[in-house]
Specification:
Length: 334
């Protein structure tokens, strides 16, 4: 299969996963702000930090309030990590893959893309925003189900899974880093009861609260949540679970030895991390190093299979002359 084809499938899966995760983050953040005491809520700026878009946001001299952040993350075409940008790029990649993807997948994505742009003003309304974002999540999951149920288990499917799982691991690590930095454990003993609520928001940002309770059968705590979202092997959004899925999908591919070596290094790094002993500064350093491992996995996949020296910065025009970049950079470096 042509390297251009598998690269487009890889990025299609990443964009869909990015859109789903961003929509979930915005919804969960709104609920969290209602649960925390007035004056201590972290606000909306952490969402900008999670997506790695702080420099772009600040360059426009915007206020980090609800309306500006939601506009930036949902409807800003100049923000490569916004919902509208992610869905636009997902559709553009899918359009070039019409002979590879099931027809149902293209129809679901194309129809939702049209409806999304028509309903975009609803995102600015608190009343309508929840249902609007829920549709983004459900449509992304529908597309995953269509691909899983109807697509041949060929190279295109394999690279779709590689893109999806790498994007999941990247977003999970960012959520843990930024969300944990915003927790209020050091603000005073009177805020102790809200500690569990905030760690619950970390789980809910990953749609993992129910699975956590089923797996751990314990109250929500910092140590157990970190163990679950970083090292659990059964929860599909946990970093280690995503890395193990990457390794499983890579093994049948030719020339995969070097990529597998990078993935194995990331798995070993996570397995040896003393999560229970890390303070916030050490946790931040661990996440930074994990992100370097994930970027290394992406760069090695790109160099091995996409015919580009560094796929993380590949912004060449799309193959059909649309002028729209076929791929966008990973989230901005810290």
């Amino acid at each position: 299969m042509l390297s251009r084809v598998v690269e487009n499938v890889y990025w299609l899966a990443r964009y869909l996963e990015r859109a789903e995760d961003t929509a979930r983050l915005i919804s969960v953040n709104a609920i969290l702000l209602l649960d925390l005491p007035h004056g201590y809520a972290p606000g909306w700026q952490p969402l900008i930090d999670i997506t790695g878009s702080r420099a772009l946001f600040d360059a426009r001299s915007r206020r980090a309030d609800e309306s500006e952040v939601v506009q930036f993350l949902v409807a800003d075409l100049d923000n490569p990590n916004s919902l509208v940008s992610s869905l636009n790029m997902a559709r553009e990649n899918a359009r070039t893959l019409r002979d590879v993807l099931p027809t149902d997948a293209w129809e679901v994505l194309h129809q939702f893309y049209l409806e999304f742009n028509e309903e975009l003003p609803a995102a600015s309304s608190r009343r309508a925003r929840f249902n609007f974002l829920k549709r983004v999540v459900l449509t992304s999951q529908t597309l995953s189900g269509v691909l899983d149920g109807t697509m041949n288990r060929n190279d295109a499917y394999t690279f779709a899974m590689l893109g999806r799982n790498l994007e999941r691991a990247d977003m999970t690590s960012r959520i843990v880093d930024v969300r944990s930095a915003q927790l209020l454990t050091a603000a005073g003993p009177e805020l102790g009861p809200f500690d569990a609520i905030q760690w619950m928001s970390v789980l809910k940002s990953l749609s993992g609260y129910e699975m956590y309770r089923l797996s751990r059968r314990a109250n929500v705590s910092r140590r157990d949540v970190l163990e679950f979202v970083l090292r659990d092997q059964q929860f599909p959004r946990a970093c280690l679970s995503c890395l193990l899925a990457l390794a499983r999908d890579l093994r049948p591919l030719p020339r995969s030895a070097e990529v597998l070596g990078v993935v194995a290094g990331a798995c070993e790094f996570l397995a040896q991390a003393p999560l229970e002993r890390l303070d916030q500064r050490e946790l931040h350093e661990l996440i930074d190093r994990l992100q370097l491992h994930l970027n290394g996995v992406h760069n090695r996949i790109a160099a091995t299979y996409f015919g580009s020296r560094d796929g993380a910065s590949d912004e060449s025009p799309s193959p059909e002359g649309t002028g729209v970049p076929r791929t966008l950079p990973l989230f901005a470096a810290r």
